[in-house]
Amino acid sequence: MHPPGADTVLIRHGDLNTKSNTVKRYMEGLLVENLEALLAERSIPGEVERRWNRPLVHTDPEAVEAATAAAADTFGVVSASPALTVSTEKARILEALEETAREHYDGGTFAVDARRSDKSLPYDSEDLAREAGTAIWETVEDEFEPEVDLDDPDLTFGVEVREDIAFVYLEQVDGPGGLPLGSQEPVVALVSGGIDSPVAAYEMMKRGSPVVPAYVDLGDYGGIDHEARAMETVRLLSEYAPTFDMQVYRIPGGETVDLLVDEMEQGRMLSLRRFFYRAAESLAERVDANGIVTGEAAGQKSSQTIRNLGVTSRATRLPIHRPLLSRDKQYIVAQAREIGTYTDSTMNAGCNRVTPDQVETNARLKPLLEAEPDDLLERAEEAATQAELVEP
Ligand SMILES: Nc1ncnc2c1ncn2[C@@H]1O[C@H](COP(=O)(O)OP(=O)(O)OP(=O)(O)O)[C@@H](O)[C@H]1O
């Protein structure tokens, strides 16, 4: 919902404001580039203006909602509003609010949220809010019985006045927040296509790290649907990252899984994780990535007890980022729905279970190393060199 004639998207960011001016300028530049690419990818007309603190998209009134949605999908953006721009003259702002009220107010409670960034203006935000409230009231009182509710209004009229321009809007669409993609170093994302790993990869992207997706082909224990699920979730993630190539490295792991199933019982799942991590490390060296991200959460599975995570993590020198470590499943499912990966992640992948009847929850490194194939980690390194790039 937007004021009549709105042709601008007002963008707010959050964590960029914790940076020095130099870093903030650099990050705002990245945010703008990413948003420009997203608009182009979605064929939405619009020019992004790189404005200190408040980047703007100038677009057509017909495209303003689509441009707002694109901004709200851009990492670093906290919220975006389709807005009408007017001069900072108070009379003009009130007129724009009256036009907006005529178009959109249809009874119920309302409030005005007025902000002013330039202290040299001849009015302050309280004056403006009060006069705006009166103007809106008088516009609609003949037809409705308007009521002001500052705590939980049905409709909020937003006004933001900056040094040279004012914005009038009705909606603040939430963005992902975080930092612009590309502002941190890349990491290898181990993506199985289950519910968790795409969400974990997204969380790292949200903090600015591009991801290099890696899928371990589990041979007979995985299968075409298992791989298809992983690929589709990466394809969905790539829609948030139009400036990055998100082809998937498919690492061959079928023979190793067969070997682990034949030779190991209890610790098999842990050695398989060790294989994943070492393969991801080798791949990271190859592509110049600086860490590994997985969808593991403390205690969610036997391989994810705190002790087991401690033991398996020893297979790599790289940091393993686990953004979901402290998250409940309910949160992760909600997040998967929000970013759009849930449906594909829950597709029946028909894979064979590698999990043994008796699982290890309390592993120790030494006995695990004695039980697993001596060449497990060399196999992982070799598998990484054989990884193929696949278009998701
Ligand atoms: N075949 C695979 N290829 C790449 N990474 C994998 C694979 N299987 C598991 N992983 C990684 O190991 C983590 C823990 O494995 P787990 O067995 O819990 O995965 P899952 O339940 O199949 O999928 P998810 O964790 O995505 O819900 C995953 O979150 C993912 O990062």
UniProtKB/TrEMBL annotation:
<dbReference type="Pfam" id="PF02926">
    <property type="entry name" value="THUMP"/>
</dbReference>
<dbReference type="GO" id="GO:0009229">
    <property type="term" value="P:thiamine diphosphate biosynthetic process"/>
</dbReference>
<dbReference type="GO" id="GO:0005524">
    <property type="term" value="F:ATP binding"/>
</dbReference>
<dbReference type="GO" id="GO:0140741">
    <property type="term" value="F:tRNA-uracil-4 sulfurtransferase activity"/>
</dbReference>
<keyword id="KW-0963">Cytoplasm</keyword>
<dbReference type="InterPro" id="IPR054173">
    <property type="entry name" value="ThiI_fer"/>
</dbReference>
<comment type="pathway">
    <text>Cofactor biosynthesis; thiamine diphosphate biosynthesis.</text>
</comment>
<dbReference type="InterPro" id="IPR004114">
    <property type="entry name" value="THUMP_dom"/>
</dbReference>
<dbReference type="GO" id="GO:0004810">
    <property type="term" value="F:CCA tRNA nucleotidyltransferase activity"/>
</dbReference>
<feature type="binding site">
    <location>
        <position position="295"/>
    </location>
    <ligand>
        <name>ATP</name>
    </ligand>
</feature>
<protein>
    <recommendedName>
        <fullName>Probable tRNA sulfurtransferase</fullName>
        <ecNumber>2.8.1.4</ecNumber>
    </recommendedName>
</protein>
<feature type="binding site">
    <location>
        <position position="273"/>
    </location>
    <ligand>
        <name>ATP</name>
    </ligand>
</feature>
<dbReference type="GO" id="GO:0052837">
    <property type="term" value="P:thiazole biosynthetic process"/>
</dbReference>
<feature type="binding site">
    <location>
        <begin position="190"/>
        <end position="191"/>
    </location>
    <ligand>
        <name>ATP</name>
    </ligand>
</feature>
<feature type="binding site">
    <location>
        <position position="304"/>
    </location>
    <ligand>
        <name>ATP</name>
    </ligand>
</feature>
<dbReference type="InterPro" id="IPR020536">
    <property type="entry name" value="ThiI_AANH"/>
</dbReference>
<comment type="function">
    <text>Catalyzes the ATP-dependent transfer of a sulfur to tRNA to produce 4-thiouridine in position 8 of tRNAs, which functions as a near-UV photosensor. Also catalyzes the transfer of sulfur to the sulfur carrier protein ThiS, forming ThiS-thiocarboxylate. This is a step in the synthesis of thiazole, in the thiamine biosynthesis pathway. The sulfur is donated as persulfide by IscS.</text>
</comment>
<dbReference type="GO" id="GO:0005829">
    <property type="term" value="C:cytosol"/>
</dbReference>
<keyword id="KW-0784">Thiamine biosynthesis</keyword>
<keyword id="KW-0067">ATP-binding</keyword>
<dbReference type="InterPro" id="IPR049962">
    <property type="entry name" value="THUMP_ThiI"/>
</dbReference>
<dbReference type="Pfam" id="PF22025">
    <property type="entry name" value="ThiI_fer"/>
</dbReference>
<dbReference type="InterPro" id="IPR050102">
    <property type="entry name" value="tRNA_sulfurtransferase_ThiI"/>
</dbReference>
<keyword id="KW-0547">Nucleotide-binding</keyword>
<keyword id="KW-0808">Transferase</keyword>
<dbReference type="Pfam" id="PF02568">
    <property type="entry name" value="ThiI"/>
</dbReference>
<feature type="domain" description="THUMP">
    <location>
        <begin position="65"/>
        <end position="172"/>
    </location>
</feature>
<keyword id="KW-0820">tRNA-binding</keyword>
<dbReference type="GO" id="GO:0009228">
    <property type="term" value="P:thiamine biosynthetic process"/>
</dbReference>
<comment type="similarity">
    <text>Belongs to the ThiI family.</text>
</comment>
<dbReference type="GO" id="GO:0002937">
    <property type="term" value="P:tRNA 4-thiouridine biosynthesis"/>
</dbReference>
<dbReference type="InterPro" id="IPR014729">
    <property type="entry name" value="Rossmann-like_a/b/a_fold"/>
</dbReference>
<keyword id="KW-0694">RNA-binding</keyword>
<dbReference type="GO" id="GO:0000049">
    <property type="term" value="F:tRNA binding"/>
</dbReference>
<dbReference type="InterPro" id="IPR003720">
    <property type="entry name" value="tRNA_STrfase"/>
</dbReference>
